[in-house]
Design a protein that fits this description.
Layout (H helix, E strand, L loop, with lengths): L1 E5 L2 E3 L5 E8 L7 E7 L6 E6 L3 E3 L7 E6 L4 E6 L8 E8 L3 E3 L3 E5 L2
Parallel strand pairs: 2-11
Antiparallel strand pairs: 1-3, 3-8, 4-5, 4-9, 5-6, 7-8, 9-10, 9-11
C-alpha cells in the first residue's frame, strides 16, 4: 500500500485545514487508519485513529475530525480551530498486519 498525504500549509491560529491521504496498491477499508504528527524536537505522536471506533488525542478532540471515503480510497483529517501547538509534520498510516506510512505534510500554524 502506498500512501500520499497532502493538504498541509501555513494557516493562522483559529484557521482550518483539511489533510488528505490517498492510497494506491491496496484498499483502505481493509485497514485501520491513523494520523500521526511530529513537531520539531519531539517524538511522533498519534492524533487520531479510525477502525471500528474513532479515537482522538485529547488535545485535538472537538477540533479535528478523521474520515474516510472508501470510494475514493482516501482518508481525511479536518482540522479546525488550529493552534500554534498543532504545528508539526503530519503523517497518515494504514495499520494492518503491516504498517504503511505516507510521506509527511507540513502544517504550520502561525500569525
Amino acid at each position: 500500500v502506498q500512501l500520499q498525504a497532502f493538504g498541509g500549509g501555513l494557516v493562522q491560529p483559529g484557521g482550518s485545514l483539511r489533510l488528505s491521504c490517498a492510497a494506491s496498491g491496496g484498499t483502505l477499508r481493509n485497514y485501520a487508519i491513523a494520523w500521526f504528527r511530529q513537531a520539531p524536537g519531539k517524538e511522533r505522536e498519534g492524533v487520531s485513529c479510525s477502525d471500528s471506533h474513532v479515537y482522538y488525542r485529547k488535545s485535538v478532540k472537538g477540533r479535528f475530525t478523521i474520515s474516510r471515503d472508501n470510494a475514493e480510497n482516501t482518508v481525511y483529517l479536518q482540522m479546525n480551530s488550529l493552534k500554534s501547538e498543532d504545528t508539526a509534520v503530519y503523517y497518515c498510516s494504514a495499520l494492518g498486519r503491516q504498517v504503511y506510512w505516507g510521506q509527511g505534510t507540513q502544517v504550520t500554524v502561525s500569525s
